[in-house]
Write a structure and sequence with these properties.
Radius of gyration: 21 Å
Largest sheet: none
Oligomer: single chain
Shape: globular
Structural class: mainly alpha
Number of helices: 20
CATH architecture: Up-down Bundle
Strand content: under 5%
CATH class: Mainly Alpha
Number of domains: 1
Helix content: over 70%
CATH superfamily: MFS general substrate transporter like domains
CATH topology: Growth Hormone, Chain: A
Mean pLDDT: 82
Number of strands: 0
Length: 417
């Protein structure tokens, strides 16, 4: 039977970030109608979708620092309120510039949530459990699309994109209550946790922290500018270019490929993320079982790049085969995420880990701006998504190669629970 930690911490964090991901990505289904309503060309639409990630920069390093030295629970509580207000504001805009500003501020509000949650999980799950903990929490990313895409498509068909953004933007205010009551920052503060399990977690985490602290290591600033950190940034940047370029523009590509209703487009859009959810769990479980991280990042990214290119090549011959290949390609970046985020948490001293992961996420997440923008620019230039998807494929293959250069974890810990 799963321990109480897995049944308490993961579901509450999963739903919280699922809501964040819905509010971040629901613009993808709304882009065609928003573009008409706000008179945006593809390049402007791509910029408005991706500007979120420039705002996302602001609170990454401070968010990791505050979560480590103050409280991840309290920080995320504040950010739930802020991002809910910004998400609702996105449904009230009347110009492209107003949409651009609303998306930028939404990025600022969500910016501290990711590093804060990563820090929270390091307080609850030992090294040998971390890829699975990351994966189960990060299931929010494909899960958000699987659950919300058909509903969002129905809302778009029944009302319009304004109703969509306002209704889904209000969800953080509802979940704030559950988050406040359900989450504790550390095991020693959780009255619901059994004594045996609390002792296991605290002793294991203290031992792992001592191992890292005893190792020879540079100071904080040299660490942030080390080769290892910037390799991680490069991999994550390219991963996000491919993942978000695919995510934000796939509904438009589906709509252009055939006459589908908003509801039908929503269902088709969700299929690649069903595959993504399955591969995330399987890849993370195997990574924890073997103690290996780099290959579990590189392989899904390489397969994603290859299958995305194959989908482009076959699109003129068989639309069904091309879409099946897209489903597999879209899963690759998601399958790589959990073992990727296990790497810095296993290599860095605890007092530095939150800020360093925030830096990696801050700069790497800019791929979420440049990926959709590149797709929009190439689509505007050539009037065809195939050229853009080939560019995304090349980025994913480059990310796979760079991930093999990231540091290895010096020792492997056995899985106890």
């Amino acid at each position: 039977m799963p321990s109480r930690r897995w049944l308490r911490i993961i579901p509450v964090a999963l739903v919280m970030y699922t809501i964040a991901y819905v509010d971040r990505t629901n613009i993808s289904l709304a882009l065609p109608s928003m573009s008409r309503g706000l008179h945006m060309d593809p390049q402007q639409a791509g910029s408005a979708a991706g500007i979120f990630f420039w705002g996302y920069l602001l609170l990454q390093v401070p968010g990791g620092y505050l979560a480590r030295h103050w409280s991840a629970k309290r920080l995320i509580s504040l950010l739930l309120v802020l991002w809910g207000a910004c998400a609702v504001a996105g449904g009230l805009v009347h110009t492209e510039r107003q949409l651009w500003l609303a998306r930028l501020l939404l990025g600022v509000a969500e910016g501290g949530v990711f590093p804060a949650t990563l820090v929270l999980l390091t307080h609850w799950f030992a090294r040998a459990e971390r890829a699975r903990a990351n994966a189960y929490w990060m299931l929010c990313q494909p899960l958000a699309i699987i659950l919300s895409a058909p509903v969002s498509g129905w809302i778009l068909g029944r009302w319009d994109w304004r109703v969509l953004l306002i209704v889904e933007g209000a969800l953080p205010f509802v979940w704030l209550i559950v988050w406040t009551l359900g989450i504790d920052d550390h095991p020693d503060r959780a009255s619901w946790l059994g004594a045996e399990e609390r002792e296991y977690v605290m002793v294991t985490l203290l031992r792992e922290a001592a191992e890292l602290n005893c190792a020879s290591r540079p100071g904080f600033l040299p660490l942030l500018f080390s080769r290892s950190i910037w390799l991680l940034i490069a991999v994550y940047f390219l991963l996000n270019c491919g993942g978000y370029g695919f995510l934000f523009w796939l509904p438009s590509a589906i709509a252009r490929a055939g006459r589908f209703s908003s509801l039908e487009t929503g269902f088709l859009y969700s299929l690649p993320y069903v595959v993504a959810g399955l591969t995330m769990v399987l890849n993370s479980r195997h990574s924890d079982r073997t103690g290996e991280r780099r290959g579990h990042v590189a392989l899904p990214l390489a397969l994603a790049g290859l299958f995305l290119s194959a989908a482009v090549i076959t699109s003129g011959r068989s639309s069904i085969l091309a879409f099946a290949l897209l489903c597999v390609a879209g899963a690759g970046p998601y399958a790589a995420i959990a073992p990727f985020w296990a790497i810095p948490s296993e290599l860095l001293p605890r007092e530095f880990a939150g800020s360093a992961m925030g830096l990696v996420n801050a700069i790497g997440a800019l791929g979420g701006y440049f990926g959709p923008l590149v797709v929009g620019v190439l689509d505007k230039r050539f009037g065809d998504f195939r050229f853009a998807f080939i560019a995304l494929s090349a980025g994913l293959l480059a990310a796979a190669g760079l991930s093999l250069l990231t540091p290895r974890r010096p020792t492997r810990q056995a899985v106890r629970r």
